[in-house]
Amino acid sequence: MKEPVEIIDGTTGQFVDAELFDEITVEHFLETKKLWRPLVLRASEKLRAQGRQNMLPDYTNWDWTKKEPYLHMLATKFFGITCRKALQGIEVVQTENITGDCQCRLPVQRGKSLLYVDYLQVAPWNIKVLMEPIGEKVEFRGVGSRLMEAAIRFSIEEGFKGRIGLHSLPSSEPFYRNECGMVPVMRDPRKQNLLWFEFTPDQAQAYLGGDI
Amino acid sequence: MRMSRDRSWLLKRAEQEDRHFISVGGLVSRIAAGTSGGERTRLMRAAFLRLLQLARRDKRLTTEQFAEKADIDVAELILIDNTPNYSPTPRTIYKLSSLLKVPSKTLMALAGMVDLKDAQFEEAAVKFAASSEPMDKLTSDEQKTLQGYIKFLSEREK
Amino acid sequence: MNVKRTMTLNLTDSEMKVLEELSRQKDLTKTTVIRQALRLYQLIDARIKRGEKLFFEDPEQKKAELMVL
Fold it and tell me: What CA–CA distances, in Å, run from A145 to A176, B10, B18, B22, C8?
């Protein structure tokens, strides 16, 4: 699947053409480790020096080559966004897993299936709160929002009616709660007490601005 | 899959995104780091590094082998060794705690990521950090010290 | 990769009943239930092939049961 999608140039503010695609390989993940991580480390040092530990991002140290079997499961689906020939964001979602993350926990929809957002990472040069401390402008804006949109639309395509669930990192909780309008359901002891958020079908539709 | 062409929607969402760091914790998890710097943290870090070094020597492993056994990134292990204020990721702590058979929370405290506010714990860390030389095979005294300290850390959670 | 192929599936009455009930409970179409089952089967099969074991635990009796496909 390759779908044209617009994002925003961080310097000019113009809308630019990007591409949403789903045929991701382990090489894409290795690219994130090689190209994204050094910039994340540099920005992290600046944030620490400024006493802004609560803004510290995390990055995965996974050896993605070992995770390759996971990448080939039917239940695992990927989305990536490229622009100007570089990967700008990457997402892994699951339609089913054996740890119960693909089941709704919100009482009004408990037991129903949802799409689980397992991994979502925007290239660090697109993250304003990381680039500002190091005095850089973001390259593109809206990449994370497009990945959230892709998850919701895929949930609809799969028959889950837009329901998605995710474990938020602490620094992202305000984003999901206040900006996206997701429901914080519970802290999950199986996932280091990270806050579990869900979208109901109505909330997912509201996030998309009614454009289903 | 047809993505939205509504530019005002995109602008609104981009503006919201600008204010936050968006990530999810399914594969990536994070706990707010404790304060970096400070004498207390430096001493605890010294104990943390000493624990890793002695455990590695006790198992007669190179840094790379130790990282592989713990299922962590060798680059991060080197960063832990060489960067004073570097905070290991929670996943790394979890993996190390499994290998060393020490509770994660205790290891996090040693790494300076959480503050247990426990004077006895801090004192034990200082003593342990000061108790051994970094090179060569562990002496039997060093082995006893290491085993004793691991036992102390394990029993602390109970 | 996203091209779909069609298959005819013959089910017994009881199998169809189970499928309909799952479809109702999960608020999914019957087709999606079947696809979900296939995904789950593949996940479990892959892990068992790697030598892992699958257990169920009864929270009251604290017993575990080994499930082998």
Answer: 11, 8, 10, 9, 39
Mean pLDDT of all residues belonging to chain A = 87
> Do β-strands C54-58 and A194-198 pair in parallel, antiparallel, or remain unpaired?
unpaired
CATH number of B106's domain: 1.10.260
Enter the ipTM. Answer: 0.91
Question: Which of helix, strand or coil describes residue C38?
Answer: helix
Q: Do A1 and C1 make contact, defined as CB atoms within 8 angstroms?
A: yes
- Distance set, CA C6 to CA A166, B128, C32 (Å): 32, 67, 13
Token code pair at residue A203: 């909330």
Cα B14–chain centre separation: 34
Would the CB atoms of B87 and A208 count as touching at under 8 Å?
no
For A2-207, CATH gives 3.40.630.30
- Name the H helices within B4-110: 7-18, 39-58, 63-70, 74-82, 90-100, 104-110
Residue A4, C-beta contacts closer than 8 angstroms, at least 6 positions apart:
A17, A18, A19, A20, B3
pTM of the model: 0.69
Q: What is the pLDDT of residues A146-161, one digit of tens each?
A: 999 999 999 999 999 9
Q: How far is B99 from chain A (nearest CA, A)?
A: 17
Instruction: Say whether B131 sits in a helix, a strand or coil.
Output: coil
Q: Residue B140's domain spans which residues?
A: 33-156
The token duo for B120 is 């006895």
Chain A neighbours (≥3 Cβ pairs under 8 A) are B, C
Q: Which residues of C42-58 are buried (b: 16+ CB within 10 A; e: fewer)?
A: ebeeeeeeeeeeeeeee
| Tens digit of each residue's pLDDT (9 = 90 or more) over A102-130 | 999 999 999 899 999 998 889 989 999 88
- DSSP lists the bridge partners of residue A82 as A19, A87
Residues of chain A with pLDDT under 50: 59-61
Domain membership of residue B24 (yes or no) is: no
Report the DSSP beta bridge partners of residue B42: none
* Contact yes or no for C26 and A111 at CB 8 A: yes
> What is the domain partition of chain A in residue ranges?
2-207
Say how many domains are in chain B: 1
For A5, residues 6+ apart whose C-beta sits below 8 A from its C-beta are: A17, A18, A19, A20, A81, A146, B3
> C-alpha distances in angstroms, A19 versus A180, B60, C26?
23, 50, 33
Say how far apart CA B7 and CA B21 lie, in whole Å.
22
